[in-house]
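Q: Can I see a sequence and its folded structure?
A: Here is a first one.
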Amino acid sequence: MVLGAHGSRQGQHFKYTRSVHPNSTAEFTDPEPFPSGYTYPALLCDRNDKLHLVARAHGIPYKLVYLSREPGQPWGAQRDLIVPYTEGAAFYAIWYHKLNMDRRGRLFLNYWYYGLIGCEEQAAARRAKWPDDKFRALPEGGWEYEEMHPHDPAMLMSDDGGETWRLALTEDFVAGVASQTP
């Protein structure tokens, strides 16, 4: 279970706790802090009790990152999954993501990205691609959405417990279904 609000602001951290007894909510471990500097956590525990964490790293360029933790071990090193393009602008970015695991133990990360502030070239490209979206110029330069809409969702997958990640393909889903048929 993840406890906390928005993450590492003003020394606050997300905390992690788990049930002491499987399939019971009667007793939990003492909450322990996650590594600092992350927001929007997606946490998953696999069948071997390994924790998988995908979160936004705090600070420009607001990357989407992956960390893992083996039972009884500290958190492993951060690995960048996606680093947004930020040339010419100071981006505030939000990631909307869900981390899931299929019956074969493969990890799937569905996400879409929202970059709040961009330069004129980026705003023009977005206007051309999504003409119904509304933008406004900022007094200090750059642009931001007046109305935000999700665009271009993507899905990454890992079939080796989070060691490597790649874009998921149709064949990955077909293989997952085919392996489950009686």
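Q: Show me another, different protein.
A: A second, unrelated one:
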Amino acid sequence: MAELDWENWDATDVPDGTRLAGTHIELIRQVSANRTRAVLFDFDGTLSLIRSGWVDIMVPMMVEILVELNTGEDEADLENLVRRFVERFTGKQTIYQMIELAKQIEQRGGTPLDPVEYKHRYLDALWVRIKDCVRGLEEGRIDREEMLVPGSIALLDALKQRGLKIFLASGTDEKFVAAESDLLGVTPYLEGKVYGAIDDYKNFSKRMVIQRIVAENNIQRAELLGFGDGYVEIEDVKGVDGVAVGLATDEPACRQVDAWKRKRLILAGADAIMPNFLDHEALLDHLFTPSKNV
């Protein structure tokens, strides 16, 4: 599949799939997961809902910084600009959005801070939003199921029962993903460490994680099944001929397909689209049917 121009992705049409009978699963193409030996999950928006609404923290912060440059640009235009580049880098490490912010500041004659400083400013603001949720989970006041995409634990159970190795890779900082994975009860299903972003961003990407998983576990091409709500992990799983399931989660309810996510995920190469994991049994039965053509 040719690399897509993600800056202008919304001008590209996507095909309609077919509905898997009796489910909310849209099949974009016929694939088989019979060769699967390992499964890769994204975290935020795919399993976890703790950080749901992060865009509403990041975008206003960036707009405020650009407005302070006093360029005379309309604030609504700046918000549109920021939303577009935040969307473009969604799924990659947070630092890439901050690098673009620094470029936008420089283009307007400003002197940007190190992108890492903007990243930590954003994380501080996000913490204000999510701290009650995190503490509620820690203290048992909030049921972990409320902060998981519906059906997550049941799917993880089903994959483990099939003898598959499960890995987690996220663009969110590793220390946060590891802690939140523990809070949500996800960690016991995983093989080894949680893979998350680090400040030395050039030495982490989901593609690097996949390469490491493949090498360390002797995984061959077409032996990886991936689940994610961002285009990055979908592209990277398809890059090793794996089966990619797109989670078009309409956060935080996750009961219907988010049209914006659906389109991006299909353009990235998703083989199937679903709004949550409630139909996971039907999905696995479909993907692991022995008679299905590969």
